[in-house]
Amino acid sequence: MEEIWTSEIIESEWEIKRLQRHKNQIVNLAKQAALRNLLTTICVDADDDHLDDIARRWFTNKDVRKKVETLLRSHGFDRSVIDVEAHRLSMGDLAEIDRRLSYLVVRRDKLFSQIEDYRAGMSIVPSKRPPQPFHQELPSEDPGIAG
Hints:
The chain is mainly α. The chain has helices spanning about 1-30, 30-40, 50-55, 60-75, 80-120. The protein is rod-shaped, with a radius of gyration of 33 Å.
């Protein structure tokens, strides 16, 4: 039983680690959309295609990055606002992952508890009295035969 429980604990731990990495990746994937949202808010009159192009090139072009940072600063922001918006956009997905993580932690703790209970049950101290022999005679169904 312990091997099965230990295996389940290990699988749960790996899933917890994977989900924690996924949370970061989800936020990173939302950064372009976050930048696009911010640009839309700041540059009300700008062309949508132009804003999409800027948001896409932000990650690969230093000149675009400098221009966007200047634009953000002119509105009282710094580049961390992109991360904030990416987190805001990802809240639903992150909440779902957090629910799964909570379930896995509770499950892991229950498995540890089961292992402890199992081990405690295996180490019950025997009674100090010697076991009583089982020599009980069963009554006979024939009244003429003595037991």
